[in-house]
Amino acid sequence: MTRKILIFDTTLRDGEQCPGASLNPEEKLEIARTLAKLKVDVIEAGFAIASPGDFEGVKTIAQQIKGPAICSLARCNKKDIQAASDAVKFSDRPYIHTFIATSPIHMEKKLRMTPDQVVETAVESVKFARSLCPYVEFSAEDAGRSDPAFLYKIIAAVIEAGARTVNIPDTVGYTTPWIFGELIEKIIKNVPQIKEKGVIISVHCHNDLGLATANSLAAVMAGAGQVECTVNGIGERAGNASLEEVVMAIKTRKDIFKCETGIDTREIYKASRQVSNLTGLLVQPNKAVVGANAFAHEAGIHQAGVLRARETYEIMSPQDIGLTESRLVLGKHSGRHALADKLKDMGYQLSEENLEKAFTRFKELADKKKDLSDRDLEIIVAEEVYIVPETYMLESIDIKSGTHIQPSATVELVYKGEKISHTAIGAGPVDAVFKAIDALTKKKINLVDFTIQAITGGTDAQGEVTVRIKQADHIFVGHGASTDILIASAKAYLAAINRLLTVRP
Predict the structure, then answer these.
(1) Could you tell me if 172 and 206 are in contact, meaning their C-beta atoms sit under 8 angstroms apart?
(2) Strands 259-260 and 6-9
(3) 10-28 per-position pLDDT tens digit
């Protein structure tokens, strides 16, 4: 029987901790639904004690998502663990993940505890968690820099206390594949309770040295039964092991790893795009598996090889991750049913209301572009479905700009059913548009990031704009797309402001 590797997804917890990636409860629920379709084994839905919003997000996911276990993170103290239990208890498969640091530097400098105190606290916490929840995972934070002998001791103790999974994290991305693999082998060999009680060894690797995926796979080869990872590899600092990389490496090199996951890989690309759209964190073109260039070939030799036999330069099939290679043949004369069928083929099940919105936008874009790609449709869905209530709606923009003209913008918005407009001067046309919107919304906005990328090739390509704005200590992301980059910029800026207003009216 082929060994199964469990996939523990922490996109909604560790991934959301990435600066600028904050999600509201509705967005977290949307991603959780996609993760369930992806068939991850565990969804770490958040850190329940962190805030009332995080608690509600975990609770809502536990109430509504079926299939994966629903997990909350908790430090090794009763208050954290109780909050985690209260949030996940609504799930059919509740799961508590509690942790404490085990490296000398963390115990001395951060915890200010002796090793014996750390073991005692871990054991008490696991016992308390087991009294509330049938499934408990324990993590030895910064295990990559911990003394192996101390790890054996604390792992044995928490297993006796009731932990059913023990996680060995490389919290700061410090280790290397050969060293980390050896550590996992030694832990399994020197802690007999692991095999005696059927405990799963998990790994959670960070990417500070670009080795998160390699370290995770080395651990799998050494006997780990679970990998903790995130969609697109997002997370603290340089991020986490990338779910799509780990899963596709195991699938593609099954001859080497001799194991499998339960992931429906055909959902990978859609999950990647959704996480990127909702967090505002762009996927770099050369990103493995899901990047725009992952299945693109420009060199003549490569093109010739692929035309003769795809496997000459492609070790994975685009269809395996949910990509379709056919170009969209729909145009301005196509009907609503044709669009609905195409979206269904791409994996989108839209309500009648959302389909109507997407169709209206599709017709507008089809009048401007000769050919529409699947990526164009993804942007339409992202803009028309994954949206926040529009307190302010863009009506029109009038720009005056040129070599010897001071740029100005007249922006007209719809607010509470009334049209309002303002003209502003800026350093450039985008600056003028943003200043006009600031004046109309009466918000003091701090723009911290502004990114433009072309969605498809050609001079008629849509431009995709992502902005991040900051108010107090909160970051709000806005996303917009159009063949007119100024309209895309205005839409993205307004989307961020509307998101801000849903949180802080």
Answers:
(1) yes
(2) unpaired
(3) 999 998 888 777 788 888 9
